[in-house]
Amino acid sequence: MVTAAALGAAGCDAVGGDASAPSGAGAKEGRPSPRPTPVWDTSPSSVAAVGDSITTGFDACSVLADCPEVSWATGSSEEVDSLAVRLLGRAGAAERSWNHAVTGARMADLPGQMARAVRRAPQLVTVLAGANDACRDTVSAMTPVADFRADFQEAMNTLREALPETQVYVASVPNLKRLWSQGRTNALGKQVWKLGICPSMLGDADALDEAATLRRETVQKRVEDYNEVLEEVCAADRRCRYDGGAVHDYRFGTEQLSRWDWFHPSVDGQARLAEIAYRTVTAERP
């Protein structure tokens, strides 16, 4: 569920302004033409986060509890060095970053979170959501892709109606199948999973029969479909940057997983997420 890797970001940053060749007296005198204003600001001055338990730091510090101070997006922990701290400095992050993520949230909850975020008029909004849409009691209960798209688009519309120039960083949904392959090596982790953590992927963790394999592949394909939606919706908005699949593709190990549930990011995992986000947000041209 975690981070740090190569970052190509899918098309979301265009350059605005008139870049045509100079003409008239100014050109004849050799004066440089005005530089076009970039659409993407690599140093936004405020940050709001929306999403689920990954962004609330759930199970990173203690069992069954949020730990927002280690959130990859807005946390204050020196161990994590969150995106907000990297962009704003520690004092600036304390004053100008806000975390609206909610543990257990699905994409259907994002429009409401976004509505709360816009009240602060942030210059950057971070989005990391979708794991709970795939982590359901059964495969059939996963959020349909069309509904996922509609909910994400509604969240983006909510933002754009209020704040047309606010930037958006969108993280890909983590690789749940890799999480299963890493966590199943830990006996304690597998016992915790039996309490109902992501049954669609993690249920019967040791089962390798055809039915179990098909179930996991179906969940994995749904996550890939969700990421395709995130990329496509983001690409249609010139002030949105998708991480290019970096969170999904990061080859995390057990050290990046919570020692309480072997599912959520550990403090180290949160730091890796922060690295990916910062590289994407500050890239001159992703």
From TrEMBL:
<feature type="region of interest" description="Disordered">
    <location>
        <begin position="15"/>
        <end position="46"/>
    </location>
</feature>
<dbReference type="GO" id="GO:0004620">
    <property type="term" value="F:phospholipase activity"/>
</dbReference>
<protein>
    <submittedName>
        <fullName>Lysophospholipase L1-like esterase</fullName>
    </submittedName>
</protein>
<feature type="compositionally biased region" description="Low complexity">
    <location>
        <begin position="15"/>
        <end position="26"/>
    </location>
</feature>
<dbReference type="InterPro" id="IPR038885">
    <property type="entry name" value="PLB1"/>
</dbReference>
<dbReference type="Pfam" id="PF00657">
    <property type="entry name" value="Lipase_GDSL"/>
</dbReference>
<dbReference type="InterPro" id="IPR001087">
    <property type="entry name" value="GDSL"/>
</dbReference>
<dbReference type="InterPro" id="IPR036514">
    <property type="entry name" value="SGNH_hydro_sf"/>
</dbReference>
